[in-house]
Amino acid sequence: QVQLQESGPGLVKSSQTLPLTCTVSGGSISNGGYYWSWIRQHPGKGLEWVGSIYFSGKTSYNPSLKSRLTISLDTSKHQFSLNLSSVTAADTAVYYCASNWRLGNYFDYWGQGILVTVSS
Amino acid sequence: QSVLTQPPSVSGAPGQRVTISCTGSSSNIGAGYNAHWYQQLPGTAPKLLIHGNSYRPSGVPDRFSGSNSGTSASLAISGLQAEDEADYYCQSYDSSLSGWVFGGGTKLTVL
Questions:
Q1: With a CB-CB cutoff of 8 Å, which residues 77-116 of chain A face chain B?
Q2: Three-state SS at B54
Q3: Which residue of B has its CA nearest to A45?
Q4: Which of A118, A119, B73, B84 could form a disulfide with B68 if both were Cys (CB 3.0 to 4.6 A apart)?
């Protein structure tokens, strides 16, 4: 069974870049059947798809975040990463990494989530 | 505002049946993209509950069922139990946005 674990700073200063990493175990990050995705949840709110990356390096980003977002893949470390630049308080959220079964378009495995707070 | 529309809350007594609707449009559910459902218990990550409109992953009780019609999908929970109290989210793919979209979530209260 695939397991995912987020890591990164819990606190980021406004206007700086938020870096998060997701480590994948129990499955190959080079598995062509999956997109590797980031999803966030603002405090007390619903889920928002942030962006995804395929093993080939192809990325898909939420249009509302595209100008500030970079998602990358490191297959040697079994990791994929998110960098969100110029953060504001509106980026304060729990960030989840998840695997997205490509043929089904659904998120089958999720990390536990990491709370990131943007401070001024 | 979410691309997929869900009622903010539903409630039911133990043993009863409740349904949660998810209304989309011609660029997501109405375009033939499947609806999927997730259960989020308090303080935990979402868990896949239904995929492909009506398929249950291994381990999900058959009290949970899904269906879709036109631009909408529904999640039904029968034989309500206290442990079902959670937030439920629908999800699909949207061709206009070229990305995955979620409903705003529905909080289920077991009375």
A1: 96, 100-101, 104-108, 110-113
A2: coil
A3: B104
A4: B73
Which of A98, A92, A80, A102 minimizes the C-alpha distance to A9? A92
**Distance spanning both ends of chain B, measured CA to CA:** 28
Residues 6+ positions from B70 with CB-CB distance below 8 Å:
B29, B30
Which residues, at least 6 apart from B59, have a Cβ–Cβ distance to it below 8 Å? none
Residue B29 dihedral angles phi and psi, to the nearest 5°: -60, -40
Residue by residue, DSSP assigns B68-93 as EETTEEEEEE-S--GGG-EEEEEEEE
Which residues, listed in sequence order, are joined to residue B85 by a DSSP beta bridge? none
Distance from CA of A59 to the nearest CA of B (A): 11
Tracing tokens 């903010």 back to the chain, one arrives at B8
pLDDT digits (tens, 9 = 90+) for A54-71: 989 999 999 999 999 999
User: From residue B36, how far is each of A42, B15, B21, B43 by CA, in Å?
Assistant: 21, 24, 12, 21
